[in-house]
Amino acid sequence: MLPDPSRSAQLIARCLELYDAGTTLTPAGIACELMDLPELPMHCPDHHVLVPLALLTAVHMRIDRGRGALESDLNTAAKRAGEIPGGLCGNYGCCGAAIGAGVFASVLQKTTPTSKSGWSAANAMTARCLTAVASVEGPRCCKRVVCLSANAAAEAAPELLGLDLGGSQDVVCHYFSHNRECRGASCPFFPENSSGQAQ
C-alpha cells in the first residue's frame, strides 16, 4: 500500500499553515502537529511522507526562501516519498520514516542519483535515522518512528547539512491508547518516560 495522495495534500496544507503562522518549531514539533490531523490513521504509509514534509518546513521556518520555494519543496518531497510503500520496516528492515528523512536531504540539496555532492549526506541521513529507529524493538509504531526519525535528523543536520534545526525535542505520546501494539513503558515517548516538553 502506498501513501494516499489526498492525505499528502492535507499534510502539505498543514505545513503551509504552520509556516504562514510565523512560528518556529522543531522537526518533532511539526511532525506532532501533522500527526494530530484527524484524517491520519494510527498506522499508514502516509507517515513516510510526513517526515520529509516536517523537516523541510522546519528548514524554511529558519531559512526563509519564500512560501513558493517551500511549497515546491513539499510537493517534490511528497511525490518522492509517495512511492515508499507501507510495511518496509518489518518486511525489508528499512523503515519508511527513515527513508523519508533521506528524501528530505535529497530534496533540500537537489540531489539526484548522479549527483557528485549531497549523495553521501542524503544516505547518511537515512542511516542515522535507521539507527535511531532500530534503538527500539518492534512491533511497529508509525508515531514512534516518526518522532525518532525527526529527532535523529535534527541532530544530524548540523554535521551533514550545515543546518541548525533546533535539535531534538522531548515528545510525550498521546496516541498510545489507539495503538493495540503499543510497547508502553518500553517506548521512549510513553508519558511516564518523558519530561513533557512537547505533546
Report the biggest beta sheet as strand number plus sense, adding barrel if it closes. Answer: none
- Assess the beta-strand content as a share of residues: under 5%
Q: Please state the structural category.
A: mainly alpha
> How many strands appear in the DSSP assignment?
0
Estimate nothing, just give the exact number of structural domains: 1
Helix content: 55-70%
Cα(first) to Cα(last) distance is 29 Å
Mean pLDDT: 95
Rg over CA atoms, rounded to whole Å, is: 15 Å
Count of DSSP helices? 8
Low-confidence stretches: none
The SSE order reads HHHHHHHH
Shape: globular
What does this structure look like?
The chain has one domain (5-169). The chain has helices spanning 5-20, 27-35, 46-62, 67-81, 88-92, 96-109, 119-134, 142-161. It is built from eight helices and no strands. The chain is 56% helix and 0% strand. It is globular. The protein has 199 residues and is mainly alpha-helical. The mean pLDDT is 95.
Keywords:
199 residues, 8 helices, globular, mainly alpha
Which helices and strands occur, and which strands form pairs?
Blueprint lengths: L4 H16 L6 H9 L10 H17 L4 H15 L6 H5 L3 H14 L9 H16 L7 H20 L38
Helix pairs in contact: 1-3, 1-4, 2-3, 2-8, 3-4, 3-6, 3-8, 4-6, 6-7, 6-8, 7-8
What does this entry show, briefly?
The chain has 199 residues and is an all-alpha fold. Helices cover 56% and strands 0% of the residues.
